[in-house]
Each structure stands twice: as structure tokens, then as C-alpha cells.
Amino acid sequence: MVIAIAIVRTRDLLAVVMLTGIYGLLSANFFVVLDAVDVAFTEASVGAGISGLLMLTAITMTGRKEAPRRHKPFLALFVVLVTGSMLIYGTMDMPYFGAVDAPVHQHVAPRYIHQSMEEVGVPNIVTAVLGSYRAFDTLGEVAVIFTAGIGVLSLLSLPRRRRAVKSDEATVEQMHERHMVLRIVSKVLIPFILLFALYVQFHGDFGPGGGFQAGVIFAAAIILYTMLFGLETAKKVFNPSIIQLLAAVGLLIYACVGVVSMLNGANFLDYNVLADDPVAGQHIGILLIELGVGITVAAVMLSIFFNFDGRRQAQQHCTEQKGEHDVSRTL
Amino acid sequence: MFLGLYNYWIVVLLMMIGFYIVIAHGNLIKKLVGLTIFQTSVFIFYISVGMVERGSAPILAEGISDYSNPLPHVLILTAIVVGIATTALGLALAVRIKESYGSVEEDEIQRQDQLNEDKS
């Protein structure tokens, strides 16, 4: 762990991104060791997959080399050392690692652990807390993801252009033609990845998993498709405007579940009233909101990636055209 | 005597590495990587706080009585996905900055801003 970071500090950007991927995977392992299987799942799919991919795409646009350091690092080092030693001094009063009687374990956790089975009826306590006890928090987080998606959209989306020039498309096709083996193998793999995402989505009540992870995995499968078959093909299959719509629909499903339970005379996002039996109502509620979460996360991740990639291709297109002009001028 | 606190020290170490990258490097992408490391250190902090000795993962099963605290897991689970969304936003900003300034180096951007101000 520490080793991975020590390397991250010193290399150039491409290596840095690769190392961040490794770092993400390592911290996922770390989370498994610490019993946080759900978190590990998310970190493995996000930290090691999507984030590295996005950073790579960004680097192709912003340049790979980091400029040689100009300002002196000593001041920064000093600040860091002082802050760090103060923080370590602060930890002296903290409870020991793994202590059973630490204050964190005294307040709400016992209730979650002992009563969630009767009240919510879902074996995975994390899902119960996420979907039922703290559903309002989760709604807020989904809203944040949605907002970030809109932000990326407004920053990077391009004005709708007419179809790209034919010759350009042909070269793109050719480039993708070259990786025949890769294409066929991943064509076989993609359905299974999608299936796995659905499994993670609907099995989240019983094992590690849930809407967040499933959304990311689902998006990863489609991103894989995009990388191998080109953005244009992928856009034909998954219409970007429908994806943007879906991002909103997911959030809406979530909020509507809350409103429906309000209409039935309970509090916002109190699922007990969704069915005759409170536990069955909880099941329905959690299933629905996890579905909403999954849809939003997948759609936002996809539209973020589509926008990055579209931007990158447009830039490359521009530079190519410029290059052609230059050549003609010199001729 | 203080060895039981080692998890916090790892967290602090990681956090300071991230912090150092953020304040000492000029490249915006590198800064974002630093932020990611900082972020992960906070995640590890929460998760390690929720850890219970001889506990098991918080999925109810027969014959297990000790579970880790599920609450930090929930918080961090959502925080990771929110984190990647905000990182994407940051990267998008960096891309746009590159387009309008031609660079993602902090001092270069500042220099250009200075020039523009002097002109106007």
C-alpha cells in the first residue's frame, strides 16, 4: 500500500494513472481484510476500473508529461509534516484498532445489527441500512452523482454536428478492425458482464452488492464495448440522449418511492406501508430504490465517459485537419 | 503501548502523501490523483474504525454473533461512487482549462492570467 503511493509521488502521468489503478485494487483488498465486502466491491470496480479509464482519457487530452517542478517543495513538505504529526498526536486518544468497546459501536450499530432482520428482513445489513434506515442520505448521494453528471455534460458536451466525414469514419473502422481477437473475445464476455451486473443488482439483499456496484459494472461493460467498437457504433446502440434521460429516471424512481409511501400515510421513504406486511413492504421499497440507484449510476457513468471520449475524438479530428492544412501549405 | 493505533498512523501517512501532492505539484491532473489518495485514506479511516476484532462482514448468517459496524460501510460505499463522479467533474474542468489555456500547469495558467490583466 504505502509502497504503491511512494511510487505514485514520483513518476510521470501515464505511470501515475496506472499506479492509481493498482492502488485502487490494493485498497479494495484492504477493505476485504477489514470485513467491508460491499465497500471493497465498489472500490474494485470504481477505483481500479472506471477512475483509471477516465483519467487516461483526460490525459490524452491534456498531455502526458508533468512539467518539471519549479517551486520549492520544502515549504509544502514542512506543512505536511507539521499537519501529519499533529494528526498523529490527535490519534493518541483514539480507541485501539478493532476494539469492541469503541464509542462507534455503542450508538446505532447494535440496533442495526440486532433488529434489522426483524424490521427489514434483509440479511445484508449494509443494504438494509443503505436502503431503509438511511435511505434519505442515499437519495442525497444519488442526487449528487446526478448533478456531477450534469456538470460534466455541460462542460464537455459538444454542439450536435452533422455526421462526421466519411473518410474519417473509415479510418476509425480500420483501426478497430485490427484488434480482431480482442473484439471477438470481449464480444463473448460482454453479455456475461452485463448478467453479472444484474446479479449484483438483485442479489444485493443477500450478499455483497447493490445498485451502486451494479451500476458501475454495467457501465464498465458498455465502456468496454465502446473502446473496442468505437464511439460512433456505441452511440448507435446506446443513444446518449436516452441515457441522459435514464439518469433522471433513476433518481425519479427513487424519489417517487418516497412520495408513494408518503401518499400512503407514512413518512417519506418509509416502506412499511408499501405492502400489507411491513417486511414485504421493506423488500419492495429496497428493490425499487436500488433499481433507481443502479439506473442512475450506470447512466451517469456512461454519459460521463461518452462525453470525455466524444470530446477527445473531436479534438483529434481538429488537430488532424490542422495537420492536413499545414501539409498542403508546405507543399 | 501505542501499537494498537497503527491503523490511524497508516491513514495519516496516506493522507499526508495525498496532501503533499495537492500542494506541491503544479499539474492539475496530478493534483486530482493526490485528492484521490487523500480521499481513499479517509475511506480507510472510516472502515478501520468500524472494524471489530474477530467480527465478520455484516451479512447475517447462522452461527456468527460478532459483526463489523455496518454504518461506516454504508457511508463509504456511497462516498466512493460520489467520489468518482466528482473526480470526473474535476477532470472535465481540467480538460476545458487545457483547451482555453493550452496547459494544465498551475503557474503557466497564472502567468497567462497575469498577462491578460496587464493588457486590459
UniProtKB/TrEMBL annotation, chain A:
<dbReference type="GO" id="GO:0005886">
    <property type="term" value="C:plasma membrane"/>
</dbReference>
<feature type="transmembrane region" description="Helical">
    <location>
        <begin position="44"/>
        <end position="62"/>
    </location>
</feature>
<feature type="transmembrane region" description="Helical">
    <location>
        <begin position="180"/>
        <end position="200"/>
    </location>
</feature>
<dbReference type="InterPro" id="IPR025383">
    <property type="entry name" value="MrpA_C/MbhD"/>
</dbReference>
<feature type="domain" description="MrpA C-terminal/MbhD">
    <location>
        <begin position="2"/>
        <end position="62"/>
    </location>
</feature>
<feature type="transmembrane region" description="Helical">
    <location>
        <begin position="243"/>
        <end position="263"/>
    </location>
</feature>
<protein>
    <submittedName>
        <fullName>Na+/H+ antiporter MnhB subunit-related protein</fullName>
    </submittedName>
</protein>
<feature type="transmembrane region" description="Helical">
    <location>
        <begin position="212"/>
        <end position="231"/>
    </location>
</feature>
<dbReference type="InterPro" id="IPR046806">
    <property type="entry name" value="MrpA_C/MbhE"/>
</dbReference>
<dbReference type="InterPro" id="IPR007182">
    <property type="entry name" value="MnhB"/>
</dbReference>
<dbReference type="Pfam" id="PF04039">
    <property type="entry name" value="MnhB"/>
</dbReference>
<feature type="domain" description="Na+/H+ antiporter MnhB subunit-related protein">
    <location>
        <begin position="181"/>
        <end position="302"/>
    </location>
</feature>
<comment type="similarity">
    <text>Belongs to the CPA3 antiporters (TC 2.A.63) subunit B family.</text>
</comment>
<keyword id="KW-1133">Transmembrane helix</keyword>
<dbReference type="Pfam" id="PF13244">
    <property type="entry name" value="MbhD"/>
</dbReference>
<dbReference type="Pfam" id="PF20501">
    <property type="entry name" value="MbhE"/>
</dbReference>
<keyword id="KW-1003">Cell membrane</keyword>
<dbReference type="InterPro" id="IPR050622">
    <property type="entry name" value="CPA3_antiporter_subunitB"/>
</dbReference>
<feature type="transmembrane region" description="Helical">
    <location>
        <begin position="283"/>
        <end position="306"/>
    </location>
</feature>
<keyword id="KW-0472">Membrane</keyword>
<feature type="transmembrane region" description="Helical">
    <location>
        <begin position="74"/>
        <end position="92"/>
    </location>
</feature>
<feature type="domain" description="MrpA C-terminal/MbhE">
    <location>
        <begin position="96"/>
        <end position="167"/>
    </location>
</feature>
TrEMBL record, chain B:
<keyword id="KW-1133">Transmembrane helix</keyword>
<feature type="transmembrane region" description="Helical">
    <location>
        <begin position="32"/>
        <end position="52"/>
    </location>
</feature>
<keyword id="KW-1003">Cell membrane</keyword>
<feature type="transmembrane region" description="Helical">
    <location>
        <begin position="72"/>
        <end position="95"/>
    </location>
</feature>
<dbReference type="Pfam" id="PF00420">
    <property type="entry name" value="Oxidored_q2"/>
</dbReference>
<keyword id="KW-0472">Membrane</keyword>
<feature type="transmembrane region" description="Helical">
    <location>
        <begin position="6"/>
        <end position="25"/>
    </location>
</feature>
<dbReference type="InterPro" id="IPR039428">
    <property type="entry name" value="NUOK/Mnh_C1-like"/>
</dbReference>
<keyword id="KW-0812">Transmembrane</keyword>
<dbReference type="InterPro" id="IPR050601">
    <property type="entry name" value="CPA3_antiporter_subunitC"/>
</dbReference>
<comment type="similarity">
    <text>Belongs to the CPA3 antiporters (TC 2.A.63) subunit C family.</text>
</comment>
<protein>
    <submittedName>
        <fullName>Na+/H+ antiporter subunit C</fullName>
    </submittedName>
</protein>
